[in-house]
Fold:
Amino acid sequence: MTGTAQGSAKAQAYQQEIADSVYEYFDKILDEREKEPRDDLLSHFLSAEVEGNRLSRNDILDICFLFLIAGLDTVTATLDCMFSFLAEHPEHRRQLVENPDVIPNAIEELLRWETPVMMVSRVAVQDTELGGCPVHKGDHAIVVIGSANVDEAEFPDADQVRFDREVNRHIAFGGGVHRCLGSHLARLELRVALRSGTSASPTTRSSPAKSSSTRRASAPSTSSRCASRRRGRGVGTTPPAVGHMPGPAALVPVTLFVPAGRVGVPA
Ligand code: HEM
Structure:
């Protein structure tokens, strides 16, 4: 957007400027709601209590900011992943073109397969153990939900992209109390985009089509472009085998490749 490399001083300054203006925008609206409450979310935040305490203005502003940004990159990155996959897999794409009713199932399967938000992080509030891995209070844990989404114990043919999968309990939207608040909106947006994308350009494909639709369960996908991008971002670039790495000390990140259903355990 700035025409400069991500992370450069100019890009960071621009991001800061935009973030400040978003905070200012919400601050102004909150002032208005304080004077004249309405039946809306922002007015509710102003009177809400958590464990008997009102939210501070900064808390509310942070929540507003999160609401705004949480739905931006996630949906665009997911569409990026899905259209890349379909461009590289004409046989899957054909299924959607020939029968658009498959789209909702295809979205769930591609969410499982690509897991656009590959990892979530947590700080342990008490000593515990996960899959034999000791976790100490204060440890930072990075939970690789993309690994859980290809867990053979949960997904038969986990390394196959199957739009006819009948049971698909993927956790691409996380799990537990912090599960994605925008998943219903995201699903709607993805359905609209896939429906119009596949009907507007039914034969688009990447050239040359070079990847297969399988990936190893123990590592982020090597087959899709999106997976390569994720690796390029340097997050969990070289995952250890499925299982765990013991957390050597508090503040040292622990990467947990958890089986499906275990996410959300660390508080
Ligand atoms: C396909 C698109 C999306 C994906 C893959 C996605 C994924 C996720 C994941 C994995 C989490 C859990 C984070 C954690 O446990 O630490 C999360 C949280 C969240 N998402 Fe989404 N998300 C998507 C779209 C959206 C949209 C459209 C919105 C809002 C308009 C949204 C709002 C949120 C919020 C507010 C949270 C934080 C919930 C909390 O901490 O209690 N997300 N999302």
In short: The beta strands are 49-50, 53-54, 119-123, 128-130, 133-135, 140-144, 243-244, 254-257. The chain has two domains: 1-70, 71-257.
